[in-house]
Amino acid sequence: MTRLEMLPVQPLLTRDYEIRRTRIHEELRNRYGPVAPVDLLGTPVWLVLGFEESLTVLRDDGQWKKSMSYWPSYMEGRIPADWPLLPALECDMMVFFDDTRHRKARAAFESAVKPFQDLSLPHARQLRNMITKYADELITLLSADGGRSGTADLCGQYTRPLPLMVTTRLLGFSDSLGDQVTMDVWRVLDAGPDAPASLERLMAALHGLVLAKQASPGDDIPSYMLASDPSASTEELAWALYLVLCTSTDMVGALLSNTIVEILVGSTGARASLSAGMVGEAVNRAALANPPLHNFTFRFPVAPTRLGRFVIAAGDPVMVSPAAAHADPLFGQAETAEAIVSSRAHLAWGAGPHQCPSRDLASSIVAIGVQRLFKRFTDVQLMLPSDQLPWRISPLVSGLRSLPVRYILSDVPPQNVPSAPKASETPGAASRPPSEPARSAFRRMLASLRRRPD
Ligand code: HEM
Predict the structure, then answer these.
(1) Which residue's alpha carbon is at the smallest distance from atom 16 of ligand 1?
(2) CB under 8 Å to 157, separation ≥6 — which residues?
């Protein structure tokens, strides 16, 4: 068995990690094979680079556990209390649950998200109309000052606010979520120095939300979760909503901007897919080229396990990297025939029992965002060479800080979308008409976005 602590390990996150990521993975693969020891912000971990090995780990939740209680170095106090990734990992939420606790929490979440995800239900159809309207409002606003052409920071003015608006609706906040929320999520997931304070702010807001929904349920995910598991405590629900907040703001925003970049300058055929009217395929190709969650949080083997060229000790932290697995020369040969013919075989949504339960919802938010943008603009050009785009340096998320573009507006007007369904069509606890965030707050939030890139 190999002692991880004894191996000479190189830091994974160099200052140019996002730009050199493919090269770094290639060097690790050449040196160690499909699984490599690396230094992650001062702590040694195993990085899974192989596609087949990634599937092995992700699919077997009997052997590979997610709870931090399986990590002896952490449990025995050998991980420094100020290790920057701790705020992103010390979270009592489903993605870190195992066994019965995981299955129960997942079932409650699935039933809460279903009304917004299952297109046979009126809420899901109405949400899509709402997203289209939000996207059009943002595009109208970002182009309001100029004539038919202009410049914009698509991150600040489109790919961050659009998911925030959708999240406000999904979580049933009475006021619009502001950009500060996304920045706090970034600080936690990017393991920044302000991560603990940011997490505290986010959790305080979510505790308040749970209390508000306990007092007065609405047609939103928190209220459906309360209805689905009335025994859940305020604390448990706040953590569950924290996961929704992180994913539906940051992950969705990252996939939206990564897809726009892939369409503009990528080499995976995303632009051709979009031109052929296959926006879902364009999103898939972007997720394959640059998964928003480029490294997953750790799994720990319950017993010594051979993986790649090593025998991993029980309780060693193992980080699956979909970004590396997608670049594995064996990707496409390892799995079923689907992997060879379909870009949907990617790992951007995970695989196995923890696979993202909201992938249809998330990909449809991104697809609508992409579709409206490229309908309303006849031309969009990056203002920077693609190798100078400002990527975040994050152990978990691959996303841009800003996306400066020049655009030319088309003659396509904002889309007229049908109005909300009747109250009688709303499901379960939602016997009242679907609510939008308070109009004035919504306008204030939109107005605050009228900043242009320098
Ligand atoms: C582009 C956007 C998204 C991406 C790329 C994404 C990706 C993922 C991935 C890779 C996992 C599995 C992580 C692992 O196995 O360690 C996951 C889990 C999860 N995602 Fe998503 N996600 C996205 C959006 C969303 C949204 C919008 C929601 C909620 C509305 C959501 C809710 C969840 C939940 C609750 C889990 C935990 C599932 C479990 O542990 O069983 N995700 N997501």
Answers:
(1) 296
(2) 138, 141, 142, 449, 450, 451
**Span 311-361, pLDDT tens digits:** 999 999 999 999 999 999 988 665 544 444 456 679 999 999 999 999 999
In a domain, 98, yes or no: yes
Cβ atoms of 160 and 362 within 8 Å: the answer is no
Residue 243 alpha carbon to ligand 1 centre in Å:
8
Residue 337 confidence (pLDDT): 45
CA distance linking residue 88 with residue 161, whole number of Å: 23
Closest atom of ligand 1 to CA, residue 221: 30
Listed residue (188, 134, 144) closest to 164, CA to CA:
134
Domain that holds residue 365: 4-447
pLDDT digits (tens, 9 = 90+) for 28-45: 999 999 999 999 999 999
**CATH number where 423 lies:** 1.10.630.10
The identity of residue 156, as a single letter, is G
Question: Cα of 377 to ligand 1 centre, how many Å?
Answer: 31
Instruction: Report if residue 453 sits inside a domain.
Output: no
Residue 452 lies in a domain: no
Point out the ligand 1 atom lying closest to the alpha carbon of residue 355. Answer: 12
